[in-house]
Amino acid sequence: MTSIAIIDYGMGNLRSVAKALEHVAPRARVIVTQNHHDILQADRVVFPGQGSIRDCMRELAHWNLVEVVRDAALGKPFLGLCLGPQALLDFSEENDGVAGLGVLPGRVIRFSDPRDPASGERLKVPHMGWNQVRQASDHPLWRGIPQDSRFYFVHSYYPRPADATLVVGWTRYGFEFASAIARDNIFAVQFHPEKSAQAGLRLLANFAAWNP
Amino acid sequence: MGLAKRIIPCLDVDRGRVVKGVKFVEIRDAGDPVEIARRYDEQGADEITFLDITASSDDRETLVHVVEQVASQVFIPLTVGGGIRTLDDVRRMLNAGADKVSINTAAIARPEFVREAAERFGNQCIVVAIDAKAVHQPGESPRWEIFTHGGRRPTGIDAVEWARRMNAYGAGEILLTSMDRDGTKRGFDLELTRAISEATTIPIIASGGVGTLDHLADGILLGKADAVLAASIFHFAEYTIEQAKRHLRARGIEVRL
Fold it and tell me: Which of A32, A137, B140, B158 is the most exposed place for a label (fewest CB within 10 A)?
């Protein structure tokens, strides 16, 4: 039996993430926790996040979770969701500039007046709704998910890893941005698999069975 | 290829039960929000909106349980509106499993509420609902005003100005209902929808008046809406969500199918 810790640091609703994991991995022990010991003992860790990056980093510090998250990202299967991948990078433009955890090299950039390349029409921000992900590698977490499947996004900032080989999924919104990044035991997605119907549930099932 | 336009069925909920009779084939309980939400998910709905029309605030708590049950079985975004007045109301709905809350009269009573909610919970989960009615005379340039209490009470607030202001206050999305068209099946107020869409930088959900699948397509192509919301054409099984999406695709609109 695998145990999955969802890190709870007061940033957004984690119930949906937990329910989706319980749905796809009924035999896993899913816990929503801010307890350091529980997080470090778990077989797998989910690092979610919603809201602003400033609040996210402040809450991580408040709960003394900065080192715990870094530790967890070192070894075991580690899934970042939404704000999660942004927090893993070095720096975000949001809130006049906020330092991230620096687990992966790169920055977080705002969608600035994105336009449809064909029509020139202005695109709305936040980027909200179902968009396609072009899988850039045959990573185990993509197993069984058709190329260019749609996932649910809602965000105004996007990750730009310094090293393009970290990108395992691309999404087009005026231009292409990294919607999934991965290295070793880390997989982090800008979209919400827990809200992305069949494709999202498959990704979570793959995570629950992943042994990097 | 890119972001799909969304189709959002809307369910009216009274004391935990879906009202206005949803008529699916083979449904065991036409008032069960979980069963209905699951059907819409299977048909390919992009999100589901619950509108709480419960009169007594004592009975509102039941919606929290409804949201909890739906969110543990249906894995697409859920929006909850109706009676959201305080930061605590927002928190309770999000904790229950809602992804967004829709704020209407509380924003008019105190616009700062929208700013506070967006700052606390992130603008991605704050939808501002606008109920607007045309108030210009024939021959005048178009003007719409916000109405409350089901379209009965004017507020004197210009709808386009209000949308701009809510955008600036941190709303992540606008749910725009034409009170002139609501329930008429004559189609969206396209001029209103387009005016609001062009005045703002955030996504617009068009609502009010859908009677045909072409109305949905027109809302997107002519009204410049990012999503379309409808109730009766789906509830009474006139069309499935999938049929609606195939129709949009045939008219050149990108959808999730």
Answer: B140
The Cα B98–Cα B71 span in angstroms is 7
Residue A113: CB atoms within 10 A of its CB come to 10
Rounded to the nearest angstrom, the minimum Cα separation between A32 and chain B is 13
Those residues with Cβ within 8 angstroms of residue A13's Cβ, 6 or more apart along the chain or in another chain: A50, B94, B95, B97, B98, B99
Along the 257 residues of chain B, how does pLDDT read in single tens digits?
Answer: 789 999 999 998 988 888 865 555 555 566 889 999 999 999 999 999 999 987 677 777 888 999 999 999 999 999 999 989 999 999 999 988 899 999 999 999 999 999 999 988 888 999 999 999 999 998 999 999 999 987 889 999 999 999 999 999 999 999 999 999 998 999 999 999 999 999 999 999 999 999 999 999 999 999 999 999 998 888 877 899 999 999 999 999 999 99
Q: Count Cβ atoms below 10 Å from residue B214 Cβ, excluding itself.
A: 14
Task: List, for residues B5-31, the tens digit of each pLDDT value.
Answer: 999 999 989 888 888 655 555 555 668
- Please tell me the pTM assigned to this model: 0.95
Q: What is the pLDDT of residues B184-233, one digit of tens each?
A: 999 999 999 999 999 999 999 999 999 999 999 999 999 999 999 998 88
Rounded distance between C-alpha atoms, residue A21 and residue B72, angstroms: 10
Touching B: A residues 105-164, CB under 8 Å:
116, 122-132, 148, 150, 152-156
Report residue A65 as tokens.
């979770």
Q: Check if the beta carbon of residue B23 is closer than 8 Å to that of residue B237.
A: yes
- Sign (positive/negative) of CA torsion A21, A26, A31, A36? negative
What is the distance between the alpha carbons of residues B169 and A94, in angstroms, rounded to a whole number?
Answer: 17
- Distance between CA atoms of A211 and A166, rounded to whole angstroms? 18
Chain B CB contacts of A129 below 8 Å: 3-6, 46, 203, 226-227
DSSP A176: E
Q: Is A32 on the interface with B (CB under 8 A)?
A: no
Q: Compute, in degrees rounded to 10, the torsion defined by CA atoms A189, A134, A117, B100.
A: -40
Helix, strand, coil distribution of chain B in percent, nearest 5: 35, 25, 40
d(CA A45, CA A186): 10
Sheet holding A176-183, edge to edge: A29-33, A3-7, A44-47, A78-81, A186-189, A176-183, A167-172, A134-135
CB B242 within 8 A of CB B231: no
pLDDT of residue A176: 95
Token digits for B192? 């209103």
Instruction: Determine the distance in angstroms separating the CA of B4 from the nearest CA of chain A, rounded to an integer.
Output: 6
CA separation for the pair B93, B74 (Å, rounded): 16
